[in-house]
Amino acid sequence: MYFTAQGKRILFILMGIFFGYLPITASVYTGVGIFVDSGGIIILSVSNTTRSGKTSQAATLMPATSAKLQKVQWRVNGVRLNQNLQKLGTIGANASGGVSRVAFSEADWAGRTYVMNLMQAAGLEIQIDQAGNIIGRRKGQMSGLAPLMLGSHIDTVPEGGRYDGSVGVLAAIEVAQILHEYEYTTRHPLEIVVFVNEEGGKTGSRVMAGKIMEKEFDLVTKSGKTIRDGIRFIGGHPDRLEESRRQVGRIAAFLELHVEQGAVLDSKGISIGAVEGIVGIKRWNVTIEGIPNHAGTTPMDQRHDALLAAAKLIETVNRVVTEMPGSQVGTVGQIQAFPGAPNVIPGKVSLSLEIRDLDMDKIDRLYDKIAIAAQNIIQEFGVTIQYDHFYTSRSALTDSHFRKIISETADLLGLSAKHMPSGAGHDAQSIALVAPIGMIFIPSVDGISHSPKEFSHPQDITNGANVLLQTTLKLDAVLN
Q1: Is 133 exposed, middle or buried (0-12, 13-18, 19+ CB in 10 A)?
Q2: Are strands 396-397 and 272-278 parallel, antiparallel or unpaired?
Q3: pLDDT digits over 120-145, tens only?
Q4: Measured between alpha carbons, how far is 15 from 18 in angstroms, rounded to an integer?
């Protein structure tokens, strides 16, 4: 029998693994990639280029027993994960190609039923807490240890996409499925959580953290139900929410995999984001008052135009925020001029000001700089400017040790990684009030989210799930 040189290398490697004198690793043997997938399959391949310029492997050759594998070699079943994601995406699908699975709707109910079936197949014990959060639990080896918690949400905005939240939920279930298939019990209990109504105010995670106001439950959601009635609709009990609260120390760690919802990773060709934290937010209503007057009879040099002053203030916000080093953002997203007639010089303008950053003190410094610079606008246009601070969302930093493990795990998997902030809010932001958190981002193509055009590549989803799996195993080993 004749073998090519490549064939001889493959035969040598397979014999070495079978007889135990070569290890099974994710490294590359003389140009042939070797690793083991979630089904206990030895994989050999030629290299394929990833976002990082490193290699990935493919082409199934032969089965291997899981007993020969080390946990570091375990991988999720990417095909199954992406198929589950596409199936979930059909629930609440609309003609625009997006998904309208808003919280407390019939589509939400159907989506929750679907993921509970997946949880059951993964060997999880399922319960719905009083807030309506779905919790799938696996027992741990050691009694007394707090659980490791993984999860996200499956509710969407109206006309949303298939990936926001859902990637994190289905990847977490896939992690549980892999542990179930390998018949491996972690030291800690494992909880997979589907939080309720993330898009409508992070209701489920905030109830769990004990940080929600009673008056919120009478707010009407996009489903047409109040939050109170919506919780009842999905099997919760809004009068017993205190039972769902977790005290500090009752969760060992919370990990959330999520699409970035921005373009940083995609534009830079980076596979994994190790999230540094979820930004804080402060918002102000700004009122600029000048003098309304006749647009035809008032000379240009005698005007006190509130709208012109507002335009200058908007430019000032952009300049001040851009000039300071860092990843902070500042936005004027709403504006209204009064009296709003084409033949009247605006005498009053109302606009919004929002500043976001991981550092709450930095937000205050930026605001101070904007207010100081605006003094020149007051003098130039003869107007007054008043600021009404009405909203604060505190930043939530991720655990530095978790970030390090996420980055190291990505590197071991041959994936590029970047430490970065999250500019959007997430359920992890709520859980950070009672437990250490970690977040993993994967690329969003063109940075598009909350849109039917939202998309993440299947390989990126698989990569993120593998980072989640290995990070979970590492945290289980080191946390007490």
Answers
A1: buried
A2: antiparallel
A3: 999 999 999 999 999 999 999 998 99
A4: 5
Task: Decide: 371 and 364 in contact? Cβ < 8 Å.
Answer: no
Which is it for the CA torsion 227, 231, 232, 237, positive or negative?
Answer: negative
Highest mean pLDDT among 10-24, 236-250, 380-394: 236-250
The beta-carbon contacts of 134-137 under 8 Å, at least 24 apart in sequence, are 134/193, 134/194, 135/191, 135/192, 135/193, 135/194, 136/173, 136/176, 136/191, 136/192, 136/193, 137/189, 137/190, 137/191, 137/192
DSSP 394: -
Chain Cα centroid distance, residue 125: 25
Paired tokens of 223: 């489903």
CATH dotted code for 280-393: 3.30.70.360
Q: What is the CA radius of gyration of the chain?
A: 26
Token pair recorded at residue 278: 């979820």
- Given a cut of 50, is residue 165 above it in pLDDT? yes
Structure token pair of residue 110: 């159907």
Domain regions of the chain by residue span? 5-73, 78-278+395-478, 280-393
Backbone angles phi, psi at 239, to 5 degrees: -90, 0
The residue whose two tokens read 């509970």 is 116
- Give the CATH number of domain 78-278+395-478: 3.40.630.10
Computed over every residue of the chain, the mean pLDDT equals: 89
Distances (CA, A) of 269 to 17, 288, 389, 431: 34, 43, 39, 30
343 burial level (CB within 10 Å; 0-12, 13-18, 19+): exposed
Determine whether 285 is exposed, middle or buried from the number of CB atoms within 10 Å of its CB (0-12, 13-18, 19+).
middle
How far the first Cα of the chain sits from its last, in Å, is 56
Beta-carbon count within 10 A of 341 CB? 11
**Encoded tokens for 79:** 């095909």
